[in-house]
Model the fold of this input.
Amino acid sequence: MGRKPTPDARDNLLDAAERLFNAHGVHAVGLQQIINECGCGKNMLYREFRSKDDLIVGYLQRSHQDWMCMVDAVIAPLAGNPGAQIIAVVKAAAAKATVPDARGCPLRNTHAEFPEADHPAHQVAVEHFDAVRAQLLGLARQTGTADPEALTDRLLLIIDGLYASGGSFGGPATAVAFAEEVVQMATRPAAIAG
Done:
């Protein structure tokens, strides 16, 4: 008689995949490594995920959900102050990007590993980038800036820079200070010509 799947089997597999994918990259990790890391059998893996691509998609969807929950948590206490909410998002991204052994954004890293536009991992990553941009654009519009698109693009560059260089180049405090300057400049009333 086979082992019964536990209710948390999917989460345990995703935990193992996340540790390995984050440490080594998605292409470098085989399914047997994930099975060994999780301590489960092949049947359990294939019961939860039809293929490695399906597992990768689950990993990316979980990473996306983690980001969305993080943003919701940091902006909720600052309701009504979109400038402060934007800075809170940058601070949270800085904290996430600079933990020891951080290797960048899982979605951006996987996107780089799967440049084919029709690959499901690529598609999930692009959907994430669009959702993050929409989040920030919504906040930028609430600031009253004359150019919310430009503010959003600058903020995305700061966040991407945090994931790319982590603690280098002045670390998270420098990135947050830069984001504060960008928001202040974008929301400052235009000087009246005299």
Observations:
- The radius of gyration is 20 Å.
- The first helix runs from residue 9 to 24.
